[in-house]
Amino acid sequence: xxxxxxxxxxxxxSSVDKFGxxxxxxxxxxxxxxxxxxxxxxxxxxxxxxxxxYWHLSIIVLIGILGNSFGGILAYxxxxxxxxxxxxxxxxxxxxxILLSEEKFNKGIDLFxxxxxxxxxISRVVPVIRAFTSLPAGVAKINFPSFVLLSLLGNIIYVFFxxxxxxxxxxxxxxxxxxxxxxxxxxxxxxxxLILFFIYKxxxxx
Length: 206
Hints:
The protein is an all-alpha fold. The protein has one domain (2-205). It has helices at 2-32, 39-51, 57-94, 102-115, 118-124, 134-139, 144-169, 176-205. It is globular.
C-alpha cells in the first residue's frame, strides 16, 4: 500500500511539472472522482510554481476548482446511474487499484445517512475523505443541484487554501502533506462538532 501511495505522489508531482495547467485539471478531476491523486500535493506544488513565476495564483485556483467540480459530477453520475449493488461489485474487483475499499464507501454512506446533503460541503474541506464523497452521494441520490452547489462552495475554500499555502511556503510547500494526512480526522471531527453545536444552539434559542 505504501508503495502505491509513493508512486501516486511521484506521479502527481511529475504530471503538474510536465503538463502544467492541464495536469492540474486532470489530477483534481481524478481526485474528486474517487481516484485519490492527492490534492494536498497537487495544489501546494502548483502554488510553489506560481511563486517561481509560473502562471498566476487565481489561474491555478480556478483550474483546481473546475477539475474538482467536474470529477465530482462524474463520480456522482456513476453512483446515481449504477446503483449500490453494482458499485460495491466494482469496488470489490478494482477498488484496491485506486485505494478505494468497501470500508471507505460504507463510511461515505453512513455520513449521508446521518447528515444528509450537509456532509457534501463538510467533506469537501477535509483531505483524503473528500475524494470518496461524490460516489456515495450519487448512490444515496442526494439532490443534484444541492450537491453541485455545496461541492462548489467546499471546493473553493479547500483549493484556494492549498494553492495559497503552497504559494506562501514556496520551496517548503511539501511540509503541508504530512500535516494534512495526520490531522484529517481531527479536522473532520472538529467541523462536525461545530455544526452540531450550531444546530443545538439554534434549536435551543427557538
